[in-house]
């Protein structure tokens, strides 16, 4: 297996607990992110291109979930529990990266709540991937490896919102773009922008999904989804009554709204603004 002894120990620990059959080898792990968000004095996408690898929250200090990747934080504790302390003494560079198993083969990836863009990893990375359901924030006991997986029926029969129905994936041993990624898949709102230009610096194919876009009327029809105050913020942010990843990103950069508010505006857009929003 590619990676450090920390990675080997973690995957072995999960495999020894797992049961079930191998997954379909055509399924892929997707790593989601917002390509235009800032990390330091650059964007996440450009940082990925510069590093030629995908870094974990422990390294970059940003997240589309909770910011708890530090000793004693929730993310640190969850990893310690999931992998039986395999990473407790490991440097940030050795930590696994988080994504989702796109077993439903959705073109926008397995867990768009964490970003409009995703890296689609190749089949070779599956041998060093562990899985859990539900998300590790809920301290799941159902763990798997891709050769011993009993999570599919569990996920598919669970009545979860479309943003919450993913099988979480942990890729151990690092993600180097030219070795491990089949493609970067972007939202079409970034066509003919700096994001598209930077995407071609990654050295991997650039592809496009159908796009996330919704209008204010659709968001206003679901005030209880993230709250009336988020609907009001979405209305102010919208351009010509529309929301998409580029428009939300511009609002993030203006820093006029709480980042948590804008995260929830994205949840509305991701949930109600794409072609796969109705049935599975």
Task: Please give a structural write-up.
By secondary structure, this protein is of the alpha+beta class. It has 12 helices and 14 strands. The strands form 4 sheets. Strands 8-7-9-5-1-6-11-12 form an 8-stranded mixed sheet. A two-stranded antiparallel ribbon has the order 2-3. Strands 4-10 form a two-stranded antiparallel sheet. The longest helix is centred in the C-terminal third of the chain and has 14 residues.
Supply the key terms:
two-stranded antiparallel sheet; 12 helices; 14 strands; 18% strand; 8-stranded mixed β-sheet; globular; single chain; 280 residues; alpha+beta; 33% helix; disordered C terminus
Secondary structure blueprint with pairings:
Blueprint: H1 5-17, E1 29-33, E2 38-39, E3 42-43, H2 44-51, E4 53-54, H3 57-60, H4 74-82, E5 97-101, E6 117-121, E7 129-133, E8 142-145, H5 152-157, E9 167-171, E10 175-176, H6 177-180, E11 181-186, H7 194-199, E12 206-208, E13 214-215, H8 216-220, H9 223-226, H10 228-237, E14 242-243, H11 245-254, H12 259-272
Parallel strand pairs: 11-12
Antiparallel strand pairs: 1-5, 1-6, 2-3, 4-10, 5-9, 6-11, 7-8, 7-9, 13-14
Specify the biggest β-sheet. 8 strands, mixed
Global Rg? 18 Å
Intertermini distance: 34 Å
Q: Structural class, please?
A: alpha+beta
Overall pLDDT: 93
Proportion of residues in β-strands: 15-25%
The SSE string, one letter per element, is: HEEEHEHHEEEEHEEHEHEEHHHEHH
Neighbour order of strands in the largest sheet: 8-7-9-5-1-6-11-12
What share of residues is helical?
Answer: 25-40%
Q: Label the overall shape.
A: globular
Q: What's the total helix number?
A: 12
Low-confidence stretches: 276-280
- Number of β-strand runs: 14
